[in-house]
Amino acid sequence: MISNQVRRFYDPTFTITPEYKDSLPDLQNGPASLIEGANVPIQQVGISNFRIPLQFKTRDGKPITLETSVDGYVSLDANKKGINMSRIMRTFYKFKDEVFSLDMLEKVLKAYKEDIESQESFLRLSFSYPMVMKSLRSGMEGYQYYEVSFEGHLDNYDRFHKHMHLKFVYSSACPCSYELAEHARETREVAAIPHSQRSETEVTVALRDEFFVEDLVQVCREALKTETQVMVKREDEQAFAELNGAYQKFVEDAARLLYQELDSYNSIRDFVVRCAHLESLHSHDAVSRICKGVPNGLR
Fold first, then answer.
1. pLDDT, mean over the chain
2. Is residue 282 part of a domain?
3. In terms of CB atoms within 10 Å, which end of the chain has fewer, N or C?
4. Residues 54, 125 contacting (CB under 8 angstroms)
5. Is 65 helix (H, G, I), strand (E, B) or coil?
6. Is the pLDDT of residue 1 over 60?
7. Position 4 in a domain
């Protein structure tokens, strides 16, 4: 019988015995009779945003260590109350000293399915990836950072699906605004500045073969041409103005340019792109979305 006089006291000398450990209640692994609500499967259950420094494989072969946010999930069958959430993290920690790539995620996902006895497993690693960027004309260098996620899914047939997500920031100069500004200058000798704005694209690719963050960044650079700059002197600012003049684009153009570039890579099985031009003229954003169009693919 438990006394009504509970002490407010923490005993740092208390030692756990095997018998005491076995006596601890475990509702998560309780019988189906304890299930609240409908006794149905749950597609994903786990933990989100536990942080850990991880090594990532790079294109030049030298691993880079980055602070990483990890989301780990498994499926839960009907007639099971729940999972031991800490096992998601404990299982992942077995691989903390590995060098991560998209392919390496399959090892973790298999361990999740085995350790937690689930039908499916999911994993997402999110990090900020630094790359040295050279200025356009002055020769200065600085670090550009890219928001990247690696995502893996091992389905109930043990088929491995791997995706990379990238956010890429660029400048977009409006072709219509350029023509109107030129018209004002030529017909009325009035100074007019065409509008441009910081813009961003979110690219998701489903991959067949090995593909690096640097590869996907290069795809975006080749398609859009006008990535925002890190280190800028006057000659670089002038160069950027010329670059925007040479590669004017509507948001529809940006989506189609990315489609054309992404579709040229055999390593990329499928893709979906969202472009957003954060308008300097309007109080709203201009947005376009495009996908490769694979049957039953990304949408």
1. 95
2. yes
3. N
4. yes
5. strand
6. no
7. no
Per-residue pLDDT tens digits for 129-188: 999 999 999 999 999 999 999 999 999 999 999 999 999 999 999 999 999 999 999 999
Domain of 56 in residue numbering reads as 45-291
Check residue 102 and report its DSSP letter: T
What does the pLDDT read at residue 222? 98
pLDDT at 27: 75
User: What would the two tokens of residue 145 be?
Assistant: 């950072």
CA 73 vs CA 45, 122, 137, 288: distances in Å:
5, 5, 47, 31
What is the three-class DSSP state of 87? Answer: helix
Say how many domains are in the chain.
1
Closest CA to 52 of 41, 39, 68: 68
Phi-psi label, residue 158: left if phi above 0, alpha if psi -120 to 50, beta otherwise: left
Evaluate whether 143 touches 133 at the Cβ level (below 8 Å): yes
Compute the average pLDDT of residues 3-20: 88
Task: Yes or no: say if 149 and 125 are a contact pair by the CB < 8 Å rule.
Answer: yes
The answer to whether residue 10 is domain-embedded is no
pLDDT greater than 90 at residue 72: yes
Q: What is the pLDDT of residue 279?
A: 94
What's 104's domain CATH number? 3.10.270.10
Cα–Cα distance, 97 to 99 (Å, whole number): 7
Q: What is the pTM of this model?
A: 0.92
Asked if residue 225 lies in contact with residue 167, where contact means CB atoms within 8 angstroms, the answer is no
Mean pLDDT of the region 44-67: 96
Asked if 213 and 144 count as a contact pair (C-beta separation under 8 A), the reply is no
Q: How many CA atoms are closer than 13 Å to the CA of 70, on its beta-carbon side? A: 23
Q: Over the range 65-92, which residues count as b (16 or more CB within 10 Å of their CB) and which as e? A: ebebebbbbbbbeeebbebeeebbeebb
